[in-house]
Amino acid sequence: MRHAEERKELRRTCPLPGRLDGLVSRLLIGLALLLALVAPARAADPSVALFYGEHPPWTELAAFDWVVLEPAYHGDIAARVRAAPHTRFLAYVSVGEVSRHSARHDEVPAAWRISRNRDWNSSVIDQRPADWPAWFVEHVARPQWQLGYRGFFLDTMDSYQLAARTPEERAEQEAGLVRVVQALRAAFPDAKLVTNRGFEVLPQIAPLVDMVAAESLYRGWNPATLRYRAVAQADRDWLLARLGEVRERHRLPVLAIDYVAPGERALARETARRIRAHGFIPWIAAPEHDVLGLGAIEVLPRRVLVLHDAPVARDSAELTYAEAFRFLAMPLQHLGLVPVFVNPDEQPLPALRRLGPLAGVVTLFSNDRSRPATAALLREAIGEGLHVASFGWPGLGEAGVLESVLGLRRPNGAAPAVAPVTFSRKDPAIGFEAMPVAGRLDFVRLAAPPDSEVMLQMRDATGATMDAIALTPWGGYVWPGLGLAGLAAGRDEFRWTLDPIAFLRRALALPAMPVPDTTTESGRRLLLVHIDGDGFPNRSDLPGAPLASEVLLREILERYRVPITMSVIEGEVAPHGLYPKLAPQMEALARRMFALPHVEIASHTFSHPFEWSEVERGAFGKGYALDIPGYRFDAEREIGGSIRYIESRLAPPGKKVVLLQWSGNTNPGEATLAAVERAGVLSINGGETIATRAQPSYTHVAPLGIRKGEHYQVYAPNQNENVYTNLFTGPLYGHERVIQTFELTERPYRLKPVNLYFHTYAASRRASLEALQRAWRWAMAQPLHPVFTSDWVRKALDHEDIVVARGDGGFLVRGTRALRELRLPAEAGVPQVGASLGVAGWNEAAAGERYVHVAADQAWIALGERADAATSVAEANARIDAFERDGTTTRLRLSGHVPLSLSLRHPAGCSVSLDGRRLGAVRVADGLHHYATSRDGTETLTIGCP
């Protein structure tokens, strides 16, 4: 391994010096092999990853305990360190050589550059000078320590052999190497030091280093032929003997680095398995180390590239209206994936390696013109083993390209179909929300690749066939017009003819892995409530015509003691707003609302922009925002200014605004999202979730949110009463249909939490207030887990950053800070709580899945065939902050906002106590013990078992 400047050529495998031969050699090798094979991997051994590319996949690397980076690319990594608290970053440093391309080359005194490595165009450094160890510490290592690295991967430990010719010279060089390691340890006592080989000096430095690495145990790279190769048995025997000594004599962990092509995942897994069998830590990667490999754990990619042709050149906010985003983002996110949207007609296609690990590629094009760059990317992706799911036109143009890339054949593609056209094959899965129509206009002669599973096939009167929907060896495709059926009743109304979630899972060949879930926590569906402040000055039609805000306070906020997020519009409520005469009364009402302990405070902006893109470009006044005299849009005034007004005049002392609720069309641009982050608050609103019995389609269920540049806009889980009542024109009781939305987003998949979302003016009319009360009563009758809206927003923001990795017998999950619930396919196995770490329990979900409750910011989920006997939580209406076992005693700390109720899985005869007071089970059913208390807040339960 070499510096970045040197990796223009690939490393020549170092010769293996000092091979033993004869009977003694064979005996020593056999002994080392036996010791290595029987030595189990130590629990303390860290997982290790190496990544020397310019664009590390930071999220995925956070799954590893130690990560070695090429520091030349990254500068200060302090922010990366904070984002990955369980990962230690080590800097790659070269001890024995300095690249002639490096800026540091000429800083090394010329007298110390004693030879040249022509293969790598680098200078060999003399290890003998007395000043060299201190120079290395101050000029090479300390700058990396100051940038945030907390360890060093010491490479080129054997380069001195290029200059040292005699045993005496080698001994002097080796003594110098020892002094360098001693100096590093003295300067950085807490650093992790890893040597790449260095077997000759290991007896002297073993007490100072933390790990020894070596390359090419089973699989290597031949730089002369540029080919991957199997390591010869003799070379492997020699290396196993050395590594066995490292492991058994020096008691150091061993990192074995092997090389396998990125597309050969099965071979990489098998190589890692063989290395683990020796008790070594594996790392299997490409020789450039610019693609994430696999090691003691295998990170399971969650990002998926989505190619589409909707216009987005002007503003990333335009993606909001693209069909690829509207129809595919939600199913992908439900599967635990993170979609990355690119329009190859307007944006350069990123290199696959630049994107980092991908779970697959999805396409949705509205036309089929030639796209050479897209064809090249798809060909590369399929060649590297990635799966592709194509919806609509493949977007490749010519039939020849379609066949060469995807294997889809269009014989006589231009010949028209002869009526009648019928379905000759229809999978039972077809007809999810609507049945496709066999029509002559949709028919094209099309044949799926060999070994495909054709789900929908049409045939015309001549016997010509069209394989319209199929799962293929490379993924799957849905031909235009046959997956999303348009309705004649509305130009923009569609229905899925197939289950998009099930199809994507199969087409992308997604592994059975835990995925982050934002709908649920501690096994119960979440409930959040947030109120847009519009209509604070409206008069109610109730007797006496009170302000709508007064009715809202009395009938909702003071009646329902669950977490509620309340906002106001400064331009409505403030004395300097539109209603100065009503301002004293409205401000007094707002103060009463914000003083309630179960109410958190939000701003609904200063002027309530209606069309964000227009006001951001300078349009203002009637039709664009509240017409506040003399005011022109300013993002800082809308956000930071309104927050300062609320905190200084309306909020109780010490209570802060935590949320900004987007107004109008809820589609702010990137710069405005940045203003929210500068203000130090979260934000919500947007999305168009309004699935009802009149519109029973997943096309009406919005995604979790949308990425806009460096920022992420979190959508409200469902729409407010303004949409259910046709902009409050009637029927005013229409908001009761939100119950239908809650039910349709619960089964067959739980897609959304329960979100009571409405405006202040919902309390201005008896009909809308009664509909709102019906929705509240429905929610209060459900076994839900109430949370503040800001807490849910944090969960949504966590969704992209959680990393999942597969290990022996289970999964490692990291980044579960606010988002603590995972959804696990039943086929993966049953969580073994007793053998897991950071896992408090699980319960059954719909659609053949289980919810797994995480009680820390990382978890190890051990799996088995059936439930174990360990005490665990099945469900609770509170957050599980801690879950600890000490022998037969389990301690469980929960924090909630309503009287606690929970269900435990524990053996008979166990006692459950709260503050020393024993709790009796309310009931015992289905192997679960159900408990309830009248207390809320933070509680610690102790479960003692015989």
TrEMBL record:
SUPFAM superfamilies: (Trans)glycosidases, Glycoside hydrolase/deacetylase. CDD domains: CE4_PelA_like_C (cd10922). Pfam families: Glyco_hydro_114. Residues 86-285 form the Glycoside-hydrolase family GH114 TIM-barrel domain. InterPro entries: Aldolase_TIM (IPR013785), GH (IPR017853), GH114_TIM-barrel (IPR004352), Glyco_hydro/deAcase_b/a-brl (IPR011330), UCP029570 (IPR016925). This is Glycoside-hydrolase family GH114 TIM-barrel domain-containing protein. It comes from Sphaerotilus uruguayifluvii. The lineage of its organism: Bacteria, Pseudomonadati, Pseudomonadota, Betaproteobacteria, Burkholderiales.
